[in-house]
Write a structure and sequence with these properties.
The protein is mainly alpha-helical. 62% of the residues lie in helices and 0% in strands. The longest helix is centred in the last third of the chain and has 17 residues, at 41-57. The N and C termini lie far apart (24 Å).
Length: 65
């Protein structure tokens, strides 16, 4: 990368990154997070949305149109 920045993800963030690489959309990722991490749907959705916005703002992913 041209920015010389390093990004560090926690376990959940890394799992989201893996699912994005597999081509999963936000709904599918939210479902998987609920299953794998035993979290409430609203928590999974809100946290995922925040992470996706952050990754997009950093230019690491492109927001879905």
């Amino acid at each position: 990368m041209g920015t010389n920045q390093i990004y560090d993800l926690n376990r959940t963030g890394y799992r989201v990154w893996q699912l994005l690489q597999e081509g999963s959309d936000a709904d599918a990722i939210s479902d998987r997070l609920r299953e794998e991490f035993d979290v409430d749907q609203s928590v999974a959705t809100n946290e995922l949305d925040a992470l996706l916005r952050h990754l997009s703002a950093e230019g690491l992913i492109e927001a879905e149109q």
